[in-house]
Design goal:
By secondary structure, this protein is an alpha+beta fold. It is elongated, with a radius of gyration of 48 Å. Residues 28-114 form the Ig-like domain.
């Protein structure tokens, strides 16, 4: 079986079922087909043929099965032929011919079968969940009846960043910044023939859950380990609720502060099988006390560290000595560190430097005090002078002897108002009761450091006025000079030193907020004082760092919330609202003490606000689209970003917006009043699509007219058609000045100034007794000119019968030949475009013969909405001319002055008459102008649900005041102009219905409707109207 070629619709205009006899002396064979005239692609179709001879002569026949090439010989005398399903691919046509002969006469008949394209269908279903760093993969499956004839291609029309589709497989690996978010995806499958199917779904990316903090396994609690081999640190494996692979980090330091310049780090250590993970140093460690910490990461967040310590080698370590570097290690006993008093059998009465100190001469004692000052200097990292001054003050205030009480200074018998010169009265220090807070046998009123925290009472008094009670910073009932933790932050005063981190005049040991970040130290320490947390790893502990996460926002402005619910509190989260924009950017400036930026002044700072500018678009969406999330109108063109995104214009380009394109946007929030409630749309009414069919009688006297028109039809068509600039457009705003966007979506010269139409098609036919369609209307004037190259001869001209056949070949009484196969969107024998202004130009110099009447033909022409132009080529004023006049009247074809559209022109004069006549129809024949609303495909749904009604506007100063108007649908609102000259601009108002049906989503929902103005059924102009449902943007968790 030979392959059957599928021919495009443009190749079918000469298709016919009429027989073409080769001679006239005998009756030729008769061929009759039985088959459908239209099928869907991918279906086999069988054509059956019956061949007979009117005279009973034997006949033979054969088939032409490979297209209309006129080569027969296939399947001799076969009664049927089947085209297999694999060879029916639309859109197009199958044209199968049979040629029969009785030995004398030959008949050839072709049967045309329209093959409709069938859209592909996506049959697979996608996954709707994903997780960070795990590949999302979706293999698409699509069915198409045409099979291999329609190879399917795929495109993602909506997708998250990083997603792609290749060879029908959608792949994407979500990144860390995409965790906990939902992404809309739309994939389009196309068959290459203009048909598509789409599938949309939403992928939710799981939020990350942080792993648990690993527990230290060994060494712990200052265990002693050998010093001659590398050290192995071991932790119990952490657990991750998400099943993410974990890596561990280990650090070693001789100082509990873990100065980055003096630490030994492991780098990433992959979790090991079993219950523990270990890391071993490359070399043995130096003898002495070591601190170590370990933490874990799932690749997204890191846990806080665990801390431990151990001793390498046999080094003696004084547990009650002050640590070497300031902050004690985990497990240290604060009391033992600060209250290292003398042994029970030691003489009482002085100040012991440490547990082994002995009481000696004043000089020896002073040396001990100086040593204590040096220790304080190392801990506080202050100047040596400050430490020495503190020691000297202590020495002056307290006397020590070789095991006996002092007889000088304030010790002993005399008790004054302030015996120890600490600016706290003896009465406040409990002199009468003999209060000894630190139980060092030196009563408080004589003890310059009553609580033994290494901070002199004079520094903890609060002021220098003995008459005022001593200060109690944490209001716990115990004044600072007796309180080992004056600010109640969990760190003993002796380890906080007397520095002033925030320079507020309150020493850190007494300051409830050391760093002045508006968050109490006890909250920033979170119950873990040793070592204190350091979120950003900058060696400044959180309680001494006013911006723990280095995002230029004061911790107090970020405290006590987890806005995006990602497990990270805001003060340690670099993207608090998870919008993909770092907090450091949303802070507004680098000054942490300035208020964080609040672009929309709604009381929620940008770093916590998922819609910082309150324009209805989430910050994450604006980041992806490139618009400014801090300005509701990024390009300053007066149209909000929400409307520009909804209408598909660039919110960063001030030169283009829905306003410049002539489109209209209505915002229709759910269960709220629309904005605006109505708007006025202005439309052109110049004709855009015109089909002209030239019909000639072929009497011998018409040869001059035929020749003249054949030579001029290209010029006529070119002059009638507006110049196309080839640029695709959706509205006039997409075109340059002096141009307009045609209804076919191409920029053309503006017909309002050029008296042209966007698209002019032509065709030609002839008639004598019957109508013969030489060429159906199409867009190439050269083909029309060629079709008019026919001979003329005498005969009977049945004008009314032919005109009737042009409009309604199925209903007319004649036997028309060459008529186009009926197709969707086409009308009449020459296949007029259904949406074009249809013009029939008849040339004759004879009266109409036959029994048909002008009224019958006119009714058919009116029903088909065909305007008739008569060109009389006979003797001026002849009675026969009246046939054209009758037909013009019967078809309601009148000029703007009410005269029948009949013109006179002979031979070469026919050309200017034709041009004049067509221009009269295009510019001067009133049109019935109506408007229709249609939903546009490919958006969020049916836009018509938002239109209450459309009504004409003749009162607006920018509109033309035209009467009369008409109410076509009897809804009480006029919506049409029953008689309007082409080119008159007119207006309609779109009145919007409140949205009570479509609930908002997390992204803007856009619905599009196309409003098209028609003149006598032909499109004149159109506008896209957008209806935008603003999204619901999840708001932040408001701090308590």
């Amino acid at each position: 079986m030979k392959h059957v070629r599928v021919w495009s619709a443009a190749a079918l205009v000469t298709g016919s079922l009429a027989a073409s006899p080769s001679g006239a002396s005998a009756a030729p064979p008769v061929i009759a087909f039985t088959s459908p005239t239209a099928i869907e692609e991918g279906r086999e179709v069988t054509l059956e043929v019956t061949v007979t001879d009117p005279e009973g002569a034997p006949v033979t026949w054969s088939w032409d099965t490979d297209g209309p090439d006129g080569v027969f010989g296939d399947h001799p005398n076969a009664a049927s032929f089947t085209v297999p399903a694999a060879e029916t691919d639309g859109p197009g046509n199958l044209r199968i011919g049979v040629r029969a002969t009785d030995g004398t006469e030959t008949t050839t008949v072709y049967r045309t079968i329209t093959v409709a394209n069938v859209a592909p269908e996506i049959t697979s279903f996608p996954l709707t969940t994903g997780s960070v760093r795990h590949e999302y993969r979706y293999e698409l499956r699509t069915s198409d009846p045409a099979g291999a004839n329609d190879p399917i291609t795929y495109a993602l029309t909506a997708r998250p960043p990083g997603m792609e589709v290749v060879d029908g497989v959608v792949t994407w690996t979500p990144t860390i910044d995409q965790r906990g978010r939902a992404f809309d995806v739309t994939v389009r499958a196309a068959d290459g023939d203009g048909a598509t199917d789409t599938q949309s779904w939403t992928i939710e990316i799981a939020r990350n859950t942080a792993p648990s903090v690993p527990s230290l396994s060994s060494p712990i609690e200052r265990a002693r380990i050998a010093g001659d081999e590398p050290t192995t640190l071991t932790v119990q494996n952490a657990t991750d609720p998400d099943g993410d692979p974990l890596v561990y980090f280990f650090r070693l330091s001789r100082e509990s502060q873990f100065d980055p310049a003096r630490v030994i780090g492991s780098g990433e250590v992959a979790e090991q099988e079993g219950e523990t993970t270990s890391w071993t140093t490359s070399e043995p460690l130096d003898p002495g006390l070591w601190y170590w910490q370990a933490w874990v990461s799932d690749g997204i967040v890191e846990t806080s560290p665990r801390f431990g310590s151990f001793i390498v080698g046999d080094t003696e370590y004084e547990l009650n000595a002050l640590p070497d570097a300031g902050t004690p290690d985990a497990g240290s006993d604060w009391t033992s560190l600060l209250d290292a008093g003398p042994s029970n059998d030691a003489p009482r009465g002085g100040c012991a430097v440490d547990a082994g100190a002995t009481r000696g001469s004043s000089a020896a004692w002073l040396a001990g005090v100086l040593a204590l000052g040096l220790v304080a200097f190392r801990r506080a990292r202050r100047s040596a002078a400050s430490a020495l001054v503190m020691a000297a003050l202590t020495a002056l205030a307290v006397g020590c002897t070789d095991g006996e009480q002092m007889t000088g200074g304030d010790g002993g018998a005399v008790v004054g108002d302030d015996s120890d010169f600490d600016t706290i009265s003896d009465a406040d220090e409990g002199a009468d009761e003999g209060v000894d807070t630190d139980e060092d046998s030196n009563p408080d009123f004589r003890d310059p450091d009553s609580d033994g925290d290494t901070i002199p009472d004079s520094a903890e008094a609060g002021d220098e006025d003995r008459a005022t009670p001593p200060v109690d910073s944490d209001a716990d009932g115990t004044p600072d000079y007796r309180d080992l933790d004056a600010d109640d932050n969990g760190i003993p005063d002796g380890f906080e030193t007397r520095g002033d981190t925030d320079l507020d005049g309150i020493a850190d040991h007494a300051d409830l907020d050391d760093d002045g970040d508006l968050v109490r130290d006890v909250l920033e320490l979170m119950g873990v004082a040793l070592p204190p947390a350091d979120t950003d790893g900058d060696v400044l502990a959180n309680y001494h760092d006013p911006d723990c996460d280095d995002d230029h926002i004061l911790d107090g402005d970020e405290w006590n919330a987890d806005t995006d619910q990602d497990g990270l509190l805001d003060f340690e989260d670099h993207d608090t609202d998870n919008d993909g924009i770092p907090d450091a950017v949303e802070a507004g400036d680098a000054d942490i003490f300035s208020a964080p930026r609040d672009s929309d002044d709604d009381g929620t700072a940008d770093f916590r606000d998922t819609d910082s500018d309150n324009d209805g678009l989430s910050d994450s969406l604006e980041r992806e689209s490139g618009s400014d999330p801090t300005r509701d109108d990024s390009d300053g063109d007066g149209v909000s970003d929400l409307i520009e995104v909804g209408a598909g214009t660039d919110p960063n380009d001030g030169s283009v917006s829905p306003r410049t394109r002539g489109d209209f946007v209505f915002v229709v929030p759910f269960e709220e009043a629309p904005a605006p409630a109505r708007d006025t749309l202005r439309f052109r009414t110049t004709l855009q699509l015109v089909d002209v069919y030239f019909l000639f009688d072929i009497s011998g006297s018409m040869s001059g007219e035929l020749e003249a028109l054949a030579g001029a039809v290209s010029t006529i068509s070119t002059d009638l058609t507006c110049t196309s600039f080839g640029r695709a457009c959706r509205a006039d705003g997409d075109c340059d000045g002096g141009q307009a966007c045609s209804v076919e979506g191409v920029c053309i010269e503006d017909p309002a100034f050029s008296s042209c139409v966007a698209s002019a098609w032509t065709g030609a036919g002839i008639y004598e007794q019957e109508l013969e369609n030489l060429l159906s209307v199409q867009d190439d004037p050269a083909r029309t000119a060629a079709a008019l190259n026919v001979g003329t001869f005498g005969g009977t001209e049945q004008l009314f019968r032919a005109a009737w056949g042009v409009a309604d070949p199925a209903g007319a009484p004649g036997v028309e030949s060459g008529c186009a196969v009926p197709a969707l969107g086409r009308l009449g024998c020459p296949a007029f475009r259904e949406n074009a202004q249809r013009i029939l130009v008849i040339f004759t110099d004879e009266i109409s013969s036959g029994s048909e009447t002008a009224a019958q033909a006119g009714a058919a022409l009116r029903y088909a909405n065909i305007t008739t132009i008569g060109v009389w080529s006979g003797t001026p004023g002849a009675a026969a001319r009246d046939s054209l006049v009758q037909l013009a009247r019967a078809s309601n074809s009148f000029s703007s002055t009410g005269q029948p559209l009949v013109f006179e022109g002979m031979d070469g004069a026919v050309v200017p008459r034709v041009i004049s006549a067509i221009n009269e129809v295009v510019e001067g024949v009133p049109l019935r102008v109506t408007i229709t609303s249609a939903d546009e495909p490919g958006d969020a749904g049916d836009a018509l649900q938002f239109i209450d009604h459309v009504e004409v506007n003749v009162a607006n100063p920018d509109c033309t005041a035209i009467r009369p108007t008409e109410d076509t649908d009897a809804n009480g609102h006029d919506d049409a102009f029953p008689s309007l000259l082409p080119g008159t601009p007119v207006c309609w108002d779109v009145v919007v219905r409140q949205n009570d049906t479509v609930e908002p989503a997390t992204v803007p929902l856009v619905f599009r409707a196309r409003l098209t103005v028609h003149g006598d059924g032909s499109p004149l102009d159109s506008r896209i109207v957008y209806f935008l449902v603003p999204p619901v943007i999840p708001g932040p968790e408001v701090p308590i």
